[in-house]
Amino acid sequence: MKKLLILVLPAAALAADPALTIYNQNFGVVRETIPLQLKEGVNDVKFADVTVHLEPESVILRDPSGKAEIQIFEQNFRNDPVNQRMMLSLFEGKEISFRVSEPEKPDRVVKGRVIRSGYAPHNATAMRRYGRAYYQSQMATAAETAEPIIEVDGELQFNLPGMPVFPALTDETILKPELSWKLQSSKPGKLDAELCYVSGGMSWEADYNLVAPEDGGKLDLIGWVTMDNQSGKSFTNARVKLMAGDVSKIEEDQTAQYRAAAMSAIADAAGPPVTEKAFDEYHLYTLQRPLTLRDRETKQVEFVRTSAVASERVYVYDGASIDWDRWRGYDPSSLRQNDALGTQSNNKVRVMREFKNSKENGLGIPLPKGRLRFYQRDEDGQLEFIGENDIDHTPKDETIRVYVGNAFDIVGERKRTSFRVDNSNNWADESFEITLRNRKTEPVEIRVVEHLFRWVNWEIREHSDAFTKVDAQKIEFRVRLQPDEEKKLSYLVHYSW
Questions:
Q1: Which positions ≥6 away from 159 have C-beta within 8 Å?
Q2: What is the C-alpha separation between 339 and 428, in angstroms, rounded?
Q3: How far is it, in rounded angstroms, from Cα 407 to Cα 450?
C-alpha cells in the first residue's frame, strides 16, 4: 500500500515556546515571546537570550495584539560575552591577583599590573558588511597585540604569571549576547511582546533514501530533513518551519522582505497529516511536533515516506568530451571551423534513475533540493549502495532524473569520420560514427546524445537512425541492443552561417 507522510505542526502549541523558520541558505527567522513589565514613560529593557549571529537591523519588537503603544528610542546589540582576555582589558592599568600553581608546592598569590590585555574585540556588523578584508585587518591587528603584558615587581613579562583572579564582574560585562532597548510606553502594565529577528548559523537540507528491489523498478522512498544549529543558542520545545526555495539574501544589508518574513511565519491550524503549502514563491514545511534544537546540534526528522514509486533505469551515452577551458578566448567564428574541436570522446555510458513526482506515482508534493541515495536489494535481500546525486527544488508533476554512475557492461565509442569547411560559401559539413556494445545478459535501450556545438544554424543531412531534436543544439537517438549485440549509428550535420 502506498503511504505518504508529511509532519505538520498542531495549532495547540504553547505561545510562549520559541518558533523558528529555517531557510536552506544558512539563516533563519527566530520568534520569541518576552514578558515585559513596563512603566509609563521611558523603560530600559534587556534580553540576554539571543543568538550569536543575530542581525540587529532585522529586529522587530512589537505587541502582537496591537493594544500597547510602545516606541523604541534606542536599540543595542552586544555580542562580546565575557572571557579572560576581555576581563583583563577591563583592568588595564590596574593591579590584580594571580594564583600560581607549581608541582609539589602549595598555591601562592602574586600581584601584577595589567599593562596590556591582548584582547582584540571585533565588530560583527563590519565583519558582515566588509567581509574578508575586514577579517584580515582584524587578524593582523590581533597578531600584533595578542600577547598580554603584565608588570610584576617592576618587571614586564609577556605571559600571565598565573591564573588571574578578578575582584568581580563589572557593569561592562555580559555572559551571553544581549539585546537592550530604551522603550517609550504610553501607560504602565504587563505586555507579552513578540521578538522577531533574522539570524545566521542555522540551516537545513533534505536527504532521500531510495530502495529498489533486485529485479524491478518500484522504489521505496524515505525523506529526511537535517537541521543544523550553529547559532550560539539552544531552542527548547521550538515550533519549527522549513522554507524551501531560493530566497534572495543581501548579506550587507537586511531589507524589508526579511522583516515581513519574520512577521508572516505564523503557526498553521491543525490539518491533515500530509500537508505542505506554498508561501509566496517558495514552499513551507511545518514539523508536526515541537522539538528541542540545541546549539551545535544536528537533528534529523523524517518528513516523507512512500512506497511503490514507479521508476525507470535510463542509459545515456554522451560521447563528446570537450574541455571548454582549452578553447576559452576563441571567438565563435574561428571555433566553428576549427578542425580539432569536438574530436575528443569518452566510452562511458551513464546510468540514470528517472521517476515522476506525481500523486499517481505515490508522491505529488514539492520536493526540496537535497541528495538522493540509491540502494538496491541483492538476491539475499541485503541492501547495497548503487549511487547518489543531488536534485534541485522539484515541483509536483515534474520528472526527476538522477545520475548514479556509469554502466560496467555497456560501452560506447564515438569518432569523427569527416569534416569539410567552405568559407567562401559559409558552410561546414561534419559526420560522426558511434558504436555501442551491450555485454549484459538482458536487452537495453541507450539514449545517445549529440551536441551540435559549431553553430546555431544546422541541418541533419544524413542519419542511419531516427532522432529527436532536444533543444537548439542537441539531438538524441534511442538505440535498442540485445544481449551481446553491437551496433553502429552515424549522421552528417550541415552548418551554415
A1: 147, 148, 150
A2: 11
A3: 19
Per-residue pLDDT at 282: 62
**Mean pLDDT confidence for 94-102:** 93
Is 482 or 330 the better-scoring residue by pLDDT? 482
C-alpha distances in Å from residue 222, one per residue of 121, 227, 231, 243: 47, 16, 28, 19
Distance CA 83, CA 41 (A): 36
pLDDT tens per residue across span 421-448:
998 999 999 999 999 999 999 999 999 9
Do the Cβ atoms of 222 and 372 come closer than 8 Å?
no
Residue-level pLDDT at 330: 82
User: Does 261 score more than 80 pLDDT?
Assistant: no
Could you tell me which of 238, 307, 303 has the C-alpha nearest to residue 276?
Answer: 303
- In terms of Cβ atoms closer than 10 Å to its own Cβ (0-12, 13-18, 19+), residue 278 is exposed
Q: Are 370 and 11 in contact (CB under 8 A)?
A: no
User: What value does the mean pLDDT of the chain take?
Assistant: 84
Show the 3-state SS of the chain.
CCCCCCCCCCCCCCCCCCEEEEECCCEEEEEEEEEEEECCEEEEEEECCCCCCECHHHCEEECCCCCCCEEEEEEEEECCCCCHHHHHHHCECCEEEEEECCCCCCCEEEEEEEEECCCCCCCHHHHHHHHHHHHHHHHHHHHHHCCCEEEECCEEECCCCCEEECCCCCCCCCCCCEEEEEEEECCCEEEEEEEEEEEECEEEEEEEEEEECCCCCEEEEEEEEEEEECCCCCEEEEEEEEEECCCCCCCCCCCHHHHHHHHHCCCCCCCCCCCCEEECCEEEEECCCCEEECCCEEEEEEEEEEEEEEEEEEEEEECECCCCCCCCCCCHHHHCCCCCCCCCECCCCEEEEEEECCHHHCCCCCECCEEEEEEEECCCCCEEEEEEEEECCECCCCEEEEEEEECCCEEEEEEEEEEEEECCCCEEEEEEEEEEEECCCCCEEEEEEEECCCCCCEEEEEECCCEEEEECCEEEEEEEECCCCEEEEEEEEEEEC
Q: What is the pTM of this model?
A: 0.67
The answer to whether residue 406 scores a pLDDT higher than 50 is yes
Question: 450 exposed, middle or buried (CB, 10 Å; 0-12, 13-18, 19+)?
Answer: buried
| CB distance 107 to 120 below 8 Å | no
Question: Is the per-residue pLDDT at 218 higher than 50?
Answer: yes
Q: Which residue has the cell 505586555?
A: 191
